[in-house]
């Protein structure tokens, strides 16, 4: 057992540059001490007897932190150490410690805060009534004693214990867990904030009226008010001591000097913001007159304080100050939005303040401002939405000029700088701002009407001799609102398109501006289909000209290359029927562009994306050809060059170009669908696609596949093509379907490529459908059993691989080498449970192997895989309940055979299942996690645990295995853990919660137990 001297020595070593042990070793020792039972006695004795000494600050702070930790987490140890009926003793000891240390004027805030938090957490164990009131009185007496006074006028607010207690109390008391089954917690009503809010505010009023005040004192009071203002309505605060509280807050805003004392100014505005936010309740109660009284105060603050500060901002560039002001006005606007839309004239001044802060009339000083100014977007969107409601429609004409003013100012805010960005971070902020402004622009569009909005844009486009940034900003705004433009708008938009698609100046257009135009055209493709006579030819000629511009290709300006190709693709998809008569010219154009792209020596993935987009666009137009004979001729003509490229590159063993050609072929087949879906019930072999694809498969893809079986890149590319075929053409592939199944199985048997599982899953998805309204009975009867045999063999193949390579016994590092494969196989299990549940559970040995696999991989360090396996395991066990999982569409209620199969699985594997789930629950580190990944794993594990208990409980014959399984696993963790009170409560609670079907309580118990275990045995917490 550690001694006090040893602990102090290790603490001092931690801060000694000449330390004899590593920091890690010292921390491990100290954390181990904090978890031990001995820490209680040593900590209390030290803090009760040791005087405050500045030379021992680190030691005192450590013991103060230890006390907080022990009171919060290890109260059971305290009871075991001192016996029953000691709850008041802990509270009194902490109060004594606080009293002793507070006598020092140099007491560190960090130590004081740790002790106050300890006191707060001890409150729930005190048996006296009105414990909060008595605590306040005790702390006030200590404060008075330290300041040699019996009044509430304090000479030293900074060391005021009661203020610190009141500031921390609302924050910490919400984290105190209350268990009504716990004897200590039955006193919980005695420390509700509701019971002390009036005495607290009376105390604050007495401090406000105290003559001993300075800036620091006021900050302390404001910090307390910030946490307690939420406990009052605005009406209550106004009537409290003749409005002393609200007047005091307003006075702090007026009297603080933000340049020298920003903290006080910020604290005052934060409290005022909280009061304003809470005032929304008065609107619902019809007490708007109280709010209207406050508006005058806000206007006065703006005129006397905020406006002068904003005028001086151009000189100070104080971003912190600007953000504080903006957040305050945003809170006002958002809180009173309903009042504003009801009485827009009354709030005209507030709206003008908001306009000036959203889009200042002068250019912004610093790009970082954009982060704050964008805070207003939500308010403007909400206000426009409210104007669209029938009850507020009369306000729209009044508010429309406001949005007109906003719109006229926003152009400058989204313009690129005339020179380059000074910092890369400035560019990131600017681009984020442009991304976030989308909804705001749509709201402006709706408020101004389409005609006015487009007219303003056209007028600005017609302005002469402006830099490209001016025009790009207009096109950017049009792009963000393109989806809102109705198809019947055929007057102004065609003029805009003619203006921006000017062929005479295209070669002089800045590339960023050109890219924006292309993006706009892509967004307008649906509108173009409805108004093709107005602008389709103009748009295509503009795009063709770009794609023929060698300068773009030689410069390899990937943005323009991709955006022009993408715009062409979108137009082809949406306007295919209009372009079908011109397919010959389009293919000729495509061939020329393809040659230029090939000639580009800097060819890269951007060129490939461009080729894919162009190919997809042409394929979409081909599919719009009505005549089957012409369709076949054109499609074969278009495919011929692609197939020749594949065969040529294959013979030359050119993987890069072969992969690129296969990618282009895949993009084409995303558009190929059955010519007539009805043929599936007549003669599916009559579809012209069937013969074309059969020839490509037999003569091209299969030979290339077999030749490149060891080349994962090529196999993946071909599998992606097969997935597209299956997705779009289903049983129209019937002539080659069995061969595809056989090829997929044999190749997966020898090569565990993840993509083969993706292909297998798509086969299962499409060919497990047994609805005779979709497919004819003859095909269903032949292929559904065949596909199940294929799926079962894929499972057996993977399980053989997993077992033979002993992956179940492998380290996490070894498992992670197969991360993608494990992830896709787990998804494959999921799909099997959805599409073939009956067949799956009939395979007893296979289903056991799969459960064992899931129990192994749920501990993997990849959070996505771990969560996926836990959810899959939960779904699998859910088949033991009367109602099947929500993902099931085959059964209304679970078949008896499946329920029996699940019961047998549980009886066979319940110990292994509990062991696996506990290993995740008790070992995953979810404390102080930067990301939410660990918490998500824990959440999914708790859900799986509860579902497992629920399913077991549904079988009355085997419900005993809950307690049996949990006990066996906990025994494996050591004999000591079985003696713990927490363990006994948990084991019994699992059974009781399951018996009474209270699975929320079970989840809470599981979380509580795992947290307790990790604090005690794994980490400090």
UniProtKB/TrEMBL annotation:
It is found in: Nucleus. The keyword Nucleus applies. Signal peptide: none annotated. One of its GO terms (biological process) is protein import into nucleus. This is Exportin-1/Importin-beta-like domain-containing protein. Keywords: Nucleus, Transport. The keyword Transport applies.
């Amino acid at each position: 057992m550690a001694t006090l001297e040893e602990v102090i020595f290790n603490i001092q070593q931690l801060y000694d540059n000449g330390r004899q042990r590593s920091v890690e070793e010292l921390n491990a020792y100290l954390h181990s001490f904090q978890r031990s039972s001995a820490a209680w006695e040593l900590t209390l004795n030290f803090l009760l007897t040791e005087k405050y000494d500045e030379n021992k600050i680190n030691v005192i702070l450590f013991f103060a932190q230890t006390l907080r930790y022990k009171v919060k987490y290890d109260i059971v140890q305290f009871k075991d150490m001192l016996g029953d009926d000691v709850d008041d003793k802990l509270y009194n000891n902490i109060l004594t410690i606080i009293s002793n240390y507070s006598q020092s004027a140099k007491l560190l805030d960090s130590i004081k805060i740790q002790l106050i938090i300890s006191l707060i957490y001890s409150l729930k164990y005190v048996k006296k009534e009105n414990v909060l009131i008595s605590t306040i009185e005790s702390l006030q007496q200590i404060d008075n004693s330290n300041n040699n006074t019996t009044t509430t006028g304090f000479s030293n607010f900074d060391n005021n214990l009661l203020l610190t207690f009141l500031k921390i109390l609302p924050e910490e008391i919400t984290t105190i867990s209350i268990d009504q089954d716990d004897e200590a917690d039955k006193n919980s009503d005695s420390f509700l904030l509701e019971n002390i809010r009036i005495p607290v505010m009376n105390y604050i009023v007495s401090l406000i009226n105290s003559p001993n005040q300075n800036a620091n004192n006021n900050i302390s009071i404001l910090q307390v008010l910030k946490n307690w203002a939420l406990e009052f309505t605005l009406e209550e605060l106004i009537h409290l001591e003749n409005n002393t509280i609200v007047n005091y807050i307003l006075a702090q805003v007026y009297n603080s000097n933000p340049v020298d004392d920003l903290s006080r100014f910020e604290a005052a505005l934060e409290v005022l913001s909280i009061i304003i936010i809470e005032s929304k309740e008065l609107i619902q109660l019809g007490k708007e007159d109280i709010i209207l009284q406050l508006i005058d105060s806000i206007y006065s603050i703006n005129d006397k304080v905020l406006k002068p500060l904003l005028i001086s901002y151009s000189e100070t560039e104080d971003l912190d100050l600007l953000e504080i002001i903006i957040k305050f006005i945003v809170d006002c606007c958002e809180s009173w939005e309903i009042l504003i839309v009801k009485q827009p004239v009354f709030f005209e001044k507030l709206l003008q303040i908001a306009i000036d802060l959203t889009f200042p009339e002068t250019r912004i000083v610093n790009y970082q401002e954009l982060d704050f100014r964008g805070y207003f977007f939500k308010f403007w969107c909400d206000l426009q939405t409210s104007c669209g409601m029938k009850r507020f429609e009369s306000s729209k004409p009044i508010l429309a000029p406001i949005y007109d003013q906003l719109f006229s100012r926003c152009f400058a805010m989204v313009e690129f700088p005339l020179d380059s960005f000074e910092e890369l971070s400035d560019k990131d902020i600017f681009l984020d701002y442009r991304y976030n402004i989308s909804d705001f622009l749509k709201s402006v569009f709706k408020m101004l009407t389409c005609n006015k909005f487009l007219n303003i844009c056209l007028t600005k486009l017609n302005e002469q001799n402006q830099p490209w940034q001016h025009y790009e900003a207009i096109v950017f705004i049009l792009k963000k609102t393109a989806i809102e433009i109705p198809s019947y708008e055929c007057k102004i938009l065609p003029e805009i398109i003619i203006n921006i698609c000017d062929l005479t100046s295209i070669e002089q257009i800045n590339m960023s501006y050109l890219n924006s135009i292309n993006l706009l055209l892509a967004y307008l493709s649906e509108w173009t289909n409805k108004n093709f006579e107005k602008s389709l030819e103009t748009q295509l000629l503009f795009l063709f000209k770009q794609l023929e511009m060698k300068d773009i290709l030689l410069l390899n300006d990937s943005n323009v290359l991709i955006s022009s190709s993408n715009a062409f693709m979108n137009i082809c998809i949406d306007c295919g029927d209009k372009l079908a008569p011109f397919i010959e010219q389009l293919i000729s154009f495509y061939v020329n562009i393809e040659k230029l792209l090939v000639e580009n020596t800097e060819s890269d993935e951007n060129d490939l994306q461009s080729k894919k987009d162009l190919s997809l666009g042409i394929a979409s137009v081909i599919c719009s050809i009505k005549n089957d004979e012409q369709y076949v001729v054109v499609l074969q003509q278009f495919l011929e060059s692609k197939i020749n490229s594949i065969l040529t590159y294959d013979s030359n063993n050119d993987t890069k170009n072969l992969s690129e050609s296969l990618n282009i072929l895949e993009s084409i087949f995303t558009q190929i669908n059955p010519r007539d879906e009805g043929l599936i019930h007549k003669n599916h072999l009559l579809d012209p696609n069937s013969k074309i694809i059969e020839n490509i498969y037999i003569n091209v893809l299969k030979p290339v596949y077999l030749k490149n079986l060891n080349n994962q890149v090529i196999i993946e590319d071909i599998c992606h093509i097969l997935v597209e075929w299956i997705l779009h053409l289903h049983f129209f592939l019937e002539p080659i379907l069995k061969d595809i199944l056989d090829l997929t199985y044999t190749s997966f048997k020898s090569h565990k490529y993840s993509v083969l599982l993706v292909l297998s899953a798509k086969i299962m998805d499409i060919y497990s459908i047994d609805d005779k309204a979709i497919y004819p009975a003859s095909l269903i009867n032949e292929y559904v059993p065949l596909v199940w045999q294929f799926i079962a063999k894929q499972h057996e193949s993977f399980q053989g691989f997993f077992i033979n390579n002993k992956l179940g016994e492998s380290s996490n590092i070894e498992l992670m080498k197969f991360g993608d494969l494990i992830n896709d196989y787990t998804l494959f299990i999921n799909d099997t449970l959805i599409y073939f549940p009956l067949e799956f559970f009939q395979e007893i040995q296979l289903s056991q192997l799969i459960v064992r696999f899931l129990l192994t991989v749920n501990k993997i360090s990849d959070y996505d895989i771990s969560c996926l396996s836990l959810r899959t395991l939960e779904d699998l066990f859910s088949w033991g309940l009367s109602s099947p999982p929500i993902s099931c569409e085959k059964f209304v209620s679970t078949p008896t055979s499946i329920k029996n199969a699940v019961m047998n699985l549980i009886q066979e594997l319940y110990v292994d299942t509990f062991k696996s789930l506990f290993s995740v629950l008790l070992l995953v580190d979810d404390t102080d996690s930067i990301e939410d990944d660990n918490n998500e794993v824990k959440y999914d594990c708790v859900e799986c645990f509860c579902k497992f208990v629920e399913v077991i409980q549904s079988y009355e014959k085997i419900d005993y295995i809950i307690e049996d399984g949990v006990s066996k696993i906990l025994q494996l963790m050591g004999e000591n853990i079985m003696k713990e009170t927490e363990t006994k409560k948990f084991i019994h609670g699992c059974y009781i919660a399951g018996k009474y079907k209270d699975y929320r309580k079970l989840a809470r118990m599981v979380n509580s137990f795992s947290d307790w275990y990790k604090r005690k045995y794994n980490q400090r917490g």
